[in-house]
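Q: Now give one record:
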Amino acid sequence: MKQSTASLAVTLALAVLGTGAAQAQDPAKPAMEKCYGIAKAGQNDCKAGAGTSCAGTSKVDYQGDAWKLVKAGTCTTIKTPKGHGTLTPQA
């Protein structure tokens, strides 16, 4: 019984590692990064600072601590009425 449990654990661990490696090398999925200050109110991807919990909870357009995932390398080129997107949260 102990041997089959150990074998199952090893098999599952290898399966999880293999899945992660396959996802990391998937050329169909572009690399993404968090871009702050570009989301319209209620359209952020996840937690937007104090008082918010997750996606869709930003209170104002272009909230500095609310982010959206964008293709890597494009964030700082995105222009809004309040300026460009940033890679770090803004107050």
Remarks:
- Residues 2-84 form one domain.
- The longest helix spans residues 2-24.
- The radius of gyration is 19 Å.
